[in-house]
Write a structure and sequence with these properties.
5-stranded mixed β-sheet, binds calcium ion, about 350 residues, binds asparagine, alpha+beta, binds zinc ion, Neutral Protease, domain 2, 6-stranded mixed β-sheet, Elastase, domain 1, 2 domains
Length: about 350
């Protein structure tokens, strides 16, 4: 017989977390039938061999098993611990989209995805792949990055799957920056949604995975994206020439300003400072409204070729639908875009 059984796991970054496993015979599998059959497997330090998107061979995803449904030790010497983080990341991402936005899975069809951890050797990346409908996580090189299985990274990467099934923003130029920013915005909102005391919400991306050799506190900083040394705080006509992880800065900055407003503040012990590009002072409307507006803009109004001007229009249309054209929320969206040089 096969049945679902609630267990728990000791993660690398998020403390002890609940997990739903599948009992098959006398062995538990790290597979969650309550969330579309989402499972996590071991890539055994192998890599995919893909050419122009066609994969000749793929690293495995041998599902993790356990004898007592208490997974991992919380130490990276144990292969299951990163799997706990990855499975937990998919759980929180699934629950965020379902409970907050009414979206049933990444594709909206109730189907789960799967995760591979321990991909390659010292691999400093994580990525979503539409063709396998799966997530892949490296262990990091230990100098710049550790295992890439943190909540915001999981939310970021799986949001690439949501974007692909909705607006399908082309991954270059301004639309590519908006694609990346969508992942940072929703990934951050997943981290806030999880409300995990070991990994509290913030407006930093990847703060749990960076190591001292990286030299910065996070991969990206939404309050002032230029803190990473590369990202744009403000729109300019050449912003689309930047790498998509840097042109995203304009929309990340917009999102921070829309949620929290301009100026300096400290939240959950993290200090932010978010100057505007037009010397205006803007007030925030909170994270929940940011998420509602961005998700509606992404799923109803944005298309593959949406640029920054189009993102302003799309989010204003979403705010109009949700709150009305004369609402303070509608006004705040326009003010936050103007504050980053859009419109
Ligand atoms: N971690 C990178 C990203 O999500 C990997 C990629 O697919 N480009 O942007
Ligand atoms: Zn990305
Ligand atoms: Ca974060």
């Amino acid at each position: 017989s096969v049945e679902t059984a609630t267990g728990d796991g000791k993660s690398l970054y998020s403390g002890t977390v609940p997990l739903e496993a599948t009992l098959s015979g006398s062995t538990y599998q790290l597979k969650d039938a309550t969330r579309g059959g989402t499972y996590t497997g071991d890539a055994a330090n192998k890599t995919d061999l893909c050419i122009l998107g066609i994969c000749i061979s793929r690293a495995p995803s041998t599902v993790f098993t356990d004898t007592d449904n208490h997974w991992g030790t919380g130490a990276s010497s144990d292969r299951s611990s990163a799997a706990v983080d990855a499975q937990y990341g998919t759980n929180e991402t699934w629950d965020y989209y379902k409970n907050v936005h009414g979206r049933n899975g990444i594709a909206g069809d109730g189907k789960g995805s799967y995760n591979r951890v321990h991909y390659g050797n010292s691999y400093n990346n994580a990525f979503w792949d539409d063709t396998c409908f799966c997530m892949t996580y490296g262990d990091g090189d230990g100098t710049q990055l550790g295992p890439l299985v943190a909540l915001d990274v999981a939310g970021h990467e799986m949001t690439h799957g949501v974007t692909s099934k909705t607006a399908a923003l082309t991954y270059s130029g301004e639309s590519g920056g908006l694609n990346e920013a969508t992942s940072d915005i929703m990934g951050t909102l997943v981290e806030w949604y999880a409300n995990n005391s070991s990994d509290l919400g913030d407006y930093l991306i990847g703060e749990k995975i960076v190591r001292s050799g990286f030299g910065k506190a996070a991969l990206r900083f939404m309050d002032q994206p230029s803190k990473d040394g590369n990202s744009a705080d403000c729109w300019s006509s050449s912003v689309g020439n930047l790498d998509v992880h840097y042109s995203s800065g304009v929309a990340n900055h917009f999102a921070y300003l829309l949620a929290e407003g301009s100026g300096a503040k400290t939240i959950n012990g993290v200090s932010y400072n978010s100057p505007t590009c037009n010397s205006s002072s803007v007030s925030g409307i909170g994270r929940d409204k940011l998420g509602a507006i961005w998700y509606r803009a992404l799923t109803v109004y944005m298309t593959s070729s949406t640029n920054y001007a189009g993102a302003r229009t799309a989010t204003l249309s979403a705010a109009k639908d949700l709150y009305g054209v004369g609402s303070s929320e509608y006004g705040a969206v326009g003010a936050a875009w103007s504050a980053v040089g859009v419109g």
